[in-house]
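Ticket #4471: structure output looks truncated?

Reporter: J.K.
Steps to reproduce: submitted the chain below (257 residues) through the standard prediction queue, then opened the result file.
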Amino acid sequence: MLYQIKSYFKFFIKSTNQHGIHSPFVYNLVTKCLYDKTNYSSYPQVKNYKKSLLNNKNTIAVTDFGAGSHIMKSSIRIISQIAKKAGTTHSRAKLLFRLVNYFKFNAILELGTSLGIATYAMSLGNTKAKITTIEGCPNISKFSENNFKQFNLKNIEVLTGNFSNIIETLKHNTYDLIFFDGNHQKEATINYFETLLQTTHNDSVFIFDDIYWSKDMTEAWKTIIQHSKVTVSIDTFFWGFVFFRKEQNKEHFTIRL
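Returned output as attached by the reporter:
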């Protein structure tokens, strides 16, 4: 936690808003999507989905394959507590909705389903999109898959197992968006990134969750944005965005949201 506090202080000093952004692509993304204040009709649906989880007092046996939780240490957890302490926040779920809606992503891969809050928001962003989401914990995977069916979501495929093994079977696909939100360890994150690079096209977007989770995670983020295939990168503190647009000069932005 101390590392995150120190990191945010440094981030805040370096960060800016839309002013001073000279890239038209990044300026439009910030002003028309990241800072979009439109009250979309799908927002209440996202809120109700999370509300249903917050009201669920059932317990579930959780297996952590990644860095685990900073907060919850017991393997037997109440679903409402997972949603409250580890689930995607409403503001970030809305941001994911806007991103999918703004870019019109059709093929989406998510590493780390958890309770499916982010997955649900992305599915509403483009109901015609094909979303593949991977969850390591069998019990959570089964719970979320059943939840998606109850909410009549038909554009989501849930895969269960080790991320490294599963993405090996997916690396010949092409994705518009990949959301990395399941293993906050340096080596694993870099390996996922390098394996999934071959699934990208010019307009693909990678989003990395919790890039200041730990010093190792920040080092992974710094390694990724230095990669030769990465042109534009955006640090929003809680998320890191990576773009592969060949028409863009290599440039890094630090943006407050």
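Triage note (M.O.): checked the attachment and the full token line is present. Residues 131 and 156 are 5 Å apart (CA to CA).
Status: closed, working as intended.
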